[in-house]
Structure formats: structure tokens, C-alpha cells
Design brief:
It contains one helix and eleven strands, in the order αβββββββββββ. By secondary structure, it is mostly beta strands. It has a single domain, classed as Sandwich (Jelly Rolls), CATH 2.60.120. A five-stranded antiparallel sheet has the order 1-11-4-8-7, with no helix packed on it. It has a four-stranded antiparallel sheet with strand order 3-9-5-6, with no helix packed on it. Strands 2-10 form a two-stranded antiparallel ribbon.
Length: 149
């Protein structure tokens, strides 16, 4: 009887671990020469459900990135390209001791941070721009957006 209970628990664990908690997720790779101040990253998120959870921004960066943080302008638009939100956000990539934050392997790290506002229902696309006053920002490999249930 105990074997059946254990097998049932394992089966239950397998099914619950496969539940996808994402409504949307995408990472956009940046050119190796850097993220140009004129380049915008556009995430076409489509229709969102009426109710959804946290919104996260992800930054994949190299440990030799020359700054402790990155400023990103985040603009949300509806299907008629009306701006719903336009905010400058500051993401800290290195702690006070200069150690990279987030999860890493080798010299590359990925940091997820919660957006300071909730993406509104009716948002069709999210546009990200780097605001670091650099023509070509080096050391950032990819930027991502994740919306959870």
C-alpha cells in the first residue's frame, strides 16, 4: 500500500511541476557590438487575460559590463499604438561589492526584476530602449520580458 501512495505522490508532483505559470515570455538577443541608443526592442505580447500576475524584466549581461546598473525606458502601447505607460526604470546589476547579481554561468549572468508597475490589460506591445547615454552599450547580451499568471 505504501508503494501506491509513494507512486501517487510522485505522479502528483510530476503533474503539478509541469503547470506553466507564464502568460508571456521572450528574450531578444542584442548585437555583439552593443545595444545602440537608437535601437528599440519591441515585444508583441498580444491579448493578455483580464487578470494576470507579476511582470518581470530580465537582463542577460556579461560580468565585464562597465556599469553597476542599467537605465531602460519602458513604453507600453495598445493595438492602436496609443501609449499607455512610459517609464524610466533603473535595474541594479552589481551589488555594492561589485559582484554580479542574478544567476550566472561562466561570465554571463541573468537578472530578473519586477517592473515597478503592472502592465495594463489591453496592452499589445512593450518597447524597451537603453537610456545609458552610450551610443553603443556593450556588455548586455539580451533583454527579456516575462508576464506570469
Amino acid at each position: 500500500m505504501s508503494k501506491r501512495i509513494i507512486a501517487g505522490l510522485i505522479l502528483l508532483l510530476a503533474f503539478t511541476s509541469c503547470v506553466d505559470e507564464r502568460v508571456y515570455e521572450d528574450f531578444q538577443k542584442l548585437p555583439s557590438q552593443g545595444w545602440s541608443a537608437q535601437d528599440s526592442l519591441i515585444f508583441e505580447i498580444g491579448e493578455l487575460p483580464e487578470s494576470f500576475g507579476p511582470n518581470l524584466i530580465g537582463v542577460r549581461f556579461k560580468e565585464d559590463y562597465p556599469y553597476a546598473n542599467i537605465y531602460v525606458r519602458l513604453i507600453t502601447q495598445d493595438s492602436s499604438l496609443q501609449t499607455l505607460e512610459n517609464q524610466l526604470i533603473n535595474l541594479t546589476l552589481f551589488d555594492i561589492d561589485g559582484e554580479p547579481m542574478g544567476e550566472g554561468f561562466g561570465s554571463t549572468y541573468t537578472l530578473y526584476d519586477t517592473l515597478p508597475f503592472k502592465i495594463q490589460s489591453g496592452t499589445n506591445q512593450v518597447i524597451l530602449l537603453q537610456y545609458m547615454r552610450e551610443a553603443e552599450l556593450k556588455g548586455i547580451e539580451a533583454i527579456g520580458l516575462k508576464i506570469l499568471k
